[in-house]
Amino acid sequence: MAKTIVGIDVGGTFTDIAILEDGQLKVHKLPSTPDDPSRGILQGVSETGVTDADFVHGSTVATNALLEGKGARTALVTTLGFEDVLEIGRQARTELYNLDIDRAPALAPWELRFGLAERVDHTGAIIEDLTPQALETLAALLQEAEVDAIAVSFLFSFLNSAHEQMVLEALKRLPNTPFISISSQVLPEFREYERTSTVVVNSYVGQLMQHYLVGLEKSLGKGLRIMQSSGGSITAGMAAEQPVRTILSGPAGGVVGAFYTAVQAGYPDIITLDMGGTSTDVSLCPGTIKESTNSNVGGYPIGVPMIEIHTVGAGGGSIARLNTGGALVVGPQSAGADPGPACYGKGDQITVTDANLILGRLLPDHFLGGRLELDRKRSESLIETLASQIGITMTDAALGIQRVVNANMERAIRTISLERGYDPRLFTLVPFGGAGPMHSCELAQELGIPRVLVPARPGILSAFGVAIADIVKDYSRTVMLRGDDVNRSRLEEEFHGMEGFAREELRGEGLPDGDMVARRFLDARYVGQSFELTIDYPADTGRGNLERYIRDSFYTAHLRRFGYADKKEPVEIVSIRMKMELEMDKPQSVAQSPGSADSSAAKMGEAEVVFASGPSITPLYDREKLVSGAHIQGPGLVIQMDSTVVITPEWSGTVDPYGNLVLEPN
Predict the structure, then answer these.
(1) Looking at the structure, do residues 392 and 447 belong to the same domain, yes or no?
(2) Fewer CB within 10 Å, N- or C-terminus of the chain?
(3) Contacts of 504 (CB under 8 A, 6+ apart)
(4) What CATH number does the domain containing 79 carry?
(5) C-alpha distances in angstroms, 427 versus 77, 122, 226, 458?
(6) In this predicted model, what pLDDT tens digit does every residue of 31-59 receive, in sequence order?
(7) Residues of the chain scoring pLDDT < 50
(8) What long-range pairs does 416-420 form, CB within 8 A, spacing at least 24?
(9) Is 329 exposed, middle or buried (0-12, 13-18, 19+ CB in 10 A)?
(10) Range of the domain at 542
């Protein structure tokens, strides 16, 4: 019998649980507990009645600690003279014309940055050794500083990690041992600023994440895996050692679930739209899930692999208000889970959810399957006050909130598509999260996207993606090869060494390394270029000269990314990358034969809904009763426990063989 897998995604407003058992999907949803996310998880698992299962968790603990500045008191140990690398950073300005930029504060303040007299040159040779006296002095200073976490990042440690290992062993003997991470284990790559920033983030959130995961695993029992930002899961033990790999854990699960669903339905080119309670995450997948090793979260560069996700503060709980100039703004502040939108009965600020309720797009007695009744009068009172300040009607104020939040999401989609050379008219929009399907038709209309694919369970798709994620561990190493050094024997030697280390590490975590598959990649660039592109490493299948193949692959990738490629310029290999993957069983959905296009059997009444074109008496449909082939002519509301799908008058929808609702303009 296949093992039961439980996917858990903790959002800003709701905690979602997806249970995969015997090929069937069961779902559960309950309010999050922001003060202690594990409390909501344990309550939800208890309510589902699941006992013997493997648990996979998309965690926001590290994310919130970083963004809210609630991590550990962290020290940085680095090469003497390079203590200020976090302050100096890069010269590139995030806002070119802003003369008063507030940079994110260094996570290791100046008084907790310690330089040691040691030096390794660019070949990895030690030219100044680290002395025992220096280590003793360092240990004493750190003990006096009473730090909770320590990050170690020496120059060229990616070529020779001996000095970092010496520091690690010396500091392990400190009383009340702090959380310690070294850059040669977290990110053994060149560029000291990004490498140092990544290892400092790892230590900054490490102690909190370690405490959280140990407690959660103890409560749930064995079998806890954690979703990574790259779209694969790792054991809780690995995540506790390198929590920086989980910074975008939850949103990554959503992209994995959306891509799996869309490919199954026959639409591999998609734009994902994950609109939850606090924010909206968008990602573009041109036939594959795109990754980046050059991400920035909260102003802090992070060099580990992450799915390319762009986030804006536009969620169902985003607060609507007038700014000092009298203009209507929505977000990025959110009412979150507590107190939540005004209509939940506790909050006293207007949110996007309140506007949807006033417009009739949410039904007060059908929200969350009827388990949470919405207070329409509370929303009306607050929006009426806002409307009187502007001098418009309550309905127009609610429509205004809709237009503003939609504009924020449109801008995010343009950022990942048009600004990167992709035409959104060639993609399918896949909305999910509790609020995504409510806004998808209007967004697609504005952007010219020809189709919207609403998954069968949009409100828990992130939890579903977490549950089906393969076990993946990423490894990298900087090699700096060019010319004659780019040969198969040299690269095979490097990859074999990396693979041997990976299998040893995975065996130590109790994973069956014999079933693991290694996928190899190269980071390539023009000689002297500042940044690299990742290309596949070719298998030895008689493709001819390796250097020529790598060069041609790089030229193709460069042309696609930047619009030009110079085939006369030499190419160098900067780093090698490897993914060790263990494929997990996926639910095998059986395509249903199309039935009648008549959807009247699913009709559950009518309600007045306000659209941009005006109010309309709109049919309501029970999604559980919509069968394959059923057709809905807009306008319409499709009601289900985890979400509501809004079909505007200009659109219509058809249920596909896999239970997805495919929406297209009339």
Answers:
(1) yes
(2) N
(3) none
(4) 3.40.50
(5) 47, 45, 30, 19
(6) 888 888 899 999 999 998 887 888 999 98
(7) 1, 541, 543
(8) 416/271, 416/282, 416/283, 416/284, 416/308, 416/310, 417/271, 417/284, 417/447, 420/284
(9) middle
(10) 471-582
